[in-house]
Amino acid sequence: MRTITTFIITFVMGLSLNAQSSEEENFGNNRLAIAPFMAYGSSSIDDIGVGLAYEHYLNPKVAFQSDVSFGLNNEMLQFMIGPKFYPRDHDKPLSYAISPVLFVTQAEEVIDRFFAHDPPASYIETRNHRQFGFMLINSVNMSITEQFYFGLEAGLGINYINRYDSNRLSGLSENDTNSAVLFRLSTGYRF
Fold this sequence. Notes:
Layout: H1 2-26, E1 30-42, E2 46-59, E3 62-71, E4 77-85, E5 94-115, E6 121-143, E7 148-166, E8 173-175, E9 178-190
Antiparallel strand pairs: 1-2, 1-9, 2-3, 3-4, 4-5, 5-6, 6-7, 7-8, 7-9
């Protein structure tokens, strides 16, 4: 009886050690994510939208990321690229990361102007916005399973180039430095 008990305990321990080593291998080096909610704001553009992201893990503490976001109000298109640093390993059930990224934003804003003069007047102005800047994004990822995760991201940055051109007022353009904020909810798959 003692021999059978020892054999069963050894067999179960061997299975658990094998499962632990296979768990480490199941966290892939790539992550593909969708952001069903994204909010971006600066002094000249504010928009909510959706996004897609890809991340490649170079080692347990460093990754390379690229994100594309699509605005729903102002026809915004935003692209971000940069490294992502994990102070602890990325394959923990709860992981924190900080990522300095460069971003480019293109948006078209339609403004309906109304003037209460005598006679009243109104016109539609279209502004094409272009921004380039730097943002520092903090993110927290929670692993639901080995492959699926849920993430929250918040970023604060600066626009080095913030330019818009108007179709209504010729020669009007703004080119000033201002701040930008980002909030994003995401869920994704590791492979």
